[in-house]
């Protein structure tokens, strides 16, 4: 085979080497311009002519000059010329050319004449005429290309030589821009500083004693009564004078306490909205003045507070609460506290100081201890799983989507929306994974807001009305979505396989104050306490092969975990998934696998939900369907394929269960399917 290919290559090279020559001219006699007949070599240079032609041009003197090189040769007679040597090489070439010059096909350039060769560059079949033009065009193109390359080289050399110069110019320009911006900012800050000083001067002048009539009267009364107070002898102080003096000075103190400096300076932090480096002067709200007065009196009576029980200070205008009231207030949550404030607005006029001065600490140490107690109380909040949803019947839902969410707006769309959950107040929580955020969608108000600060949020589970457990890249977090703050977490940004490191955890669920997590790429299940501390783990296996757990649902003390093998590409993942049932201690109970009789095909099962009738509802993104089956009896499997489903990832239901909500990572949407009217 190799010898045949080598012979073919040599033949092609030979044809390519002789493609542009008109070989007929090599076999024509220079004298008669016809094909050689009995070719003879006339001179030492090898010039060949027909024997008949040279015999007819022999002069009378017998000296014949070669028509080409003019070399002379003497012949005695015409018959003597038959002694000229025959050109056997030319005869052999002529016979070979007769066989070689067979047409190869039609010329691919003109599509008219027969082709006798191939272009050396593009291997196109061409006749002799087209081949010459074709070769000239190629030479022209190559010359142009070469000229362009030379220009590029010269340009590169010039740019390289000018690089340092341009770098210095760029540095100078940037320094100039920075300097100009600095001067502009300094000028702006100086102007704002002068404006603040002027505003402060005006406020101070307005609040000065000379402008405050009440303070002037208090000052006059103090000066007037000071002389009387200095003349009192405590040993001979009568009861009536003592009561009168005490009442008088306490009234002056109360009148002075009612006066306040109602302006403060608030520094502002830089933000995309606020670019100012200086703060603003604001009027102080009433409750803030009460807090300032409370701090003042706290420092005044600090020594006494350390020695005397708090309940002995009730008579001092109710500045300090009793132990019982303080403890009751301390145990109230912010949400309940606001509710109580709204309900007790009518009583604030009577006990204003009592309601606004909630509780103050005596010293930094007590304040620090209280903060730690607050944090400990927050972290000890038990996890309350949601009640199982009522029995679901997929056949009751319309397969035509009534609403499709693509994102907050046209310019900001979802990118891989995965786990979703619905609160009791119809707040839909969406893990917008590749946009690194959590989306809160209010089904009642049709409004949407986002919470950023995540890496790749994937799975989520409602723990209480305002708490959720989120799996975020290699971390599991307890998050307060209502206030937008982190409570506690375990894991880090780096993946691992230890008690405190994970690799792309996904599904999460809670039961009996424990958090169960699918540590997907480690092929294991993790059990955590409600304080996000490691408790237990076990491997997820089907037979002898490890599986990647995806999502989880818990019902009646059993864990239903969707899992499948990580197969590349996913188009080969047909029948690769399953549902494994575990007890809470990690003991495998059984495996729900593909069943031909029940038409159950689990390829890539993802989100799973278990209702109160022990029915499993899950999303399979490979088959683009929502499946439902009975946990105890898998003989009947219901398939639901919505008109907008491409790769459904997770499913949940509204509070009244009239709407089924599906997240789809195939088209980056969240779809709503309503129940059909009866």
Protein architecture, described:
The chain is α+β, with helices and mostly antiparallel strands. Among the domains are: 2-102, Zinc/RING finger domain, C3HC4 (zinc finger) (Herpes Virus-1, 2-Layer Sandwich); 289-353 and 360-380, no CATH class; 394-674, Neuraminidase, CATH 2.120.10. It is built from 13 helices and 36 strands. A hairpin with a 4-residue loop joins strand 31 and strand 32. The longest helix has 45 residues, at 163-207. The protein is elongated and about 180 Å long. The chain starts with a helix and ends with a strand.
Topology:
Layout: H1 2-17, E1 39-41, E2 48-50, H2 51-56, E3 63-65, E4 72-74, H3 88-100, E5 105-106, E6 114-115, E7 117-118, E8 125-126, H4 128-161, H5 163-207, H6 213-230, H7 239-257, E9 263-266, E10 280-283, H8 286-300, H9 302-307, H10 323-330, H11 334-343, H12 352-356, H13 364-379, E11 403-405, E12 417-422, E13 427-432, E14 437-442, E15 447-452, E16 457-462, E17 467-472, E18 475-480, E19 485-491, E20 505-511, E21 514-519, E22 524-529, E23 534-539, E24 541-542, E25 545-546, E26 548-555, E27 558-564, E28 577-583, E29 588-592, E30 605-610, E31 615-620, E32 625-630, E33 637-640, E34 648-653, E35 659-664, E36 669-674
Antiparallel strand pairs: 1-2, 3-4, 5-6, 7-8, 9-10, 11-36, 12-13, 13-14, 14-15, 16-17, 17-18, 18-19, 20-21, 21-22, 22-23, 24-25, 26-27, 27-28, 28-29, 30-31, 31-32, 32-33, 34-35, 35-36
